[in-house]
């Protein structure tokens, strides 16, 4: 391997390391409390060195969101939904995927939870990154069912946002509800309780 290739490889690995450390810090401490100085220290480099990879904390945060979005692979879910015509089956499939993705990726869960609790100014960016794939899939499904006269004449955009938001809040609630009014619920319990109610409201 040439020296030039080695440098490029080292650069790519360093960039990846910075994003990983930033993801960990943003999800544990939040945006404000995460500093460039602390990130540089955790990576074993100086602040000027970190700025050679990212021009600002804002740019780094955007890259963290991009990296997290890549973990939300909805391609198989999208194909599955396209084959379904029953609204309850569609809502269950989307709900199950959301629970699986968030609970198997703690950094996704923590970042969304932190920003939800703090009402962070960057919450919109986070929501668009982490929820939008599901909102889009559901909106398209609702438009298809509506066109085929299989559901009530609802607004697909509003409905998709509301349902996805409800399920995401339920994911957050799994930990928040523990010890509150006997609220130690499993994902299956939550889905079986909420999805049929929502589906009945959409069926004609």
What does this structure look like?
- This protein has ten helices and no strands.
- The protein is mostly helical.
- The protein folds into two domains: 3-67, Homeodomain-like (Arc Repressor Mutant, subunit A); 71-202, Tetracycline Repressor, domain 2 (Orthogonal Bundle).
- Helix 1 (3-29) crosses helix 2 and helix 1 crosses helix 7 (106-118).
- The termini are far apart.
- The mean pLDDT is 84.
Low-confidence sequence ranges? none
Global outline: elongated
The separation of the N and C termini measures: 65 Å
Order of H and E elements = HHHHHHHHHH
CATH architecture of the largest domain: Orthogonal Bundle
- What kind of oligomer do you see? single chain
**Fourth-tier CATH superfamily name of the largest domain:** Tetracycline Repressor, domain 2
**CATH fold name of the largest domain, please?**
Tetracycline Repressor, domain 2
For the report, how would you describe the main beta sheet? none
Outline the fold blueprint.
Elements: H1 3-29, H2 36-43, H3 47-51, H4 57-69, H5 75-82, H6 87-104, H7 106-118, H8 123-147, H9 156-176, H10 187-202
Brief summary:
By secondary structure, this protein is mainly alpha-helical.
Features:
about 200 residues, Arc Repressor Mutant, subunit A, 2 domains, elongated
